[in-house]
Amino acid sequence: MKRRPAVAGQFYQSSPSKLSEEVREYINDEVKKEHATGIVSPHAGLMYSGRVAGAVYSGIEFPQTFILIGPNHTGIGRAVSIMSSGSWQMPTGELRIDEKIANKIKQHSVVVEEDMSAHSMEHSLEVQLPFILYFSTEAAIVPVTMMSDSLDVCRDVGEAMAIAVKDAEYPVTI
């Protein structure tokens, strides 16, 4: 399944050229890139969070796969929802889902459930993608949204992701 942009034209520019220009404004090409197992990046509209997100993505060596974890603001779907196949389309390109990593997470978690509906209108992960695509059209993603932040749920998700990352034969960043 192909997930289409839900907030293009609202949270970021909908034109490919204007979006590339918008993201470029937030990139720092002079910063030293470092290996990162995990990063934290804001998820508001780029006019509000672009500088911080740009600084975060400018400073990392890009992995083959990003596991993206974001809040579910819409309340639609399962408490912890993953998309484990397909792709996410953006004005500036398309990112495929890393099925191997996604399925490993589902296999080792009791709370992560397959649910496209939770992702269909949610912006928290979508606003990360222009930055990922700016630096790499080859990177893959594993999208996960969460409505619960209880310790037990977070522990379960974290442990499943840790197993998936440890078993990966290539770099993965959460």
Structure, described:
- By secondary structure, the chain is α/β, with parallel strands linked by helices.
- The protein is built from 6 helices and 8 strands.
- Strands 6-3-7-2-8 form a 5-stranded mixed beta sheet, covered by helices on one side. Strands 1-4-5 form a 3-stranded mixed beta sheet.
- α1 crosses α2 (46-58) and α3 crosses α6 (151-167).
- It is globular.
- The mean pLDDT is 96.
Instruction: Work out the strand percent.
Output: 15-25%
Q: Please count the helical segments.
A: 6
Annotation, overall tally of beta strands:
8
Mean pLDDT: 96
Terminal CA distance: 23 Å
Extract low-pLDDT stretches. none
Q: Could you give the order of strands across the largest sheet?
A: 6-3-7-2-8
The residue fraction in helices comes out at 25-40%
| Structural class by helix and strand composition | alpha/beta
The radius of gyration computed from the alpha-carbon positions, rounded to a whole number of angstroms, is: 15 Å
The outline comes out as globular
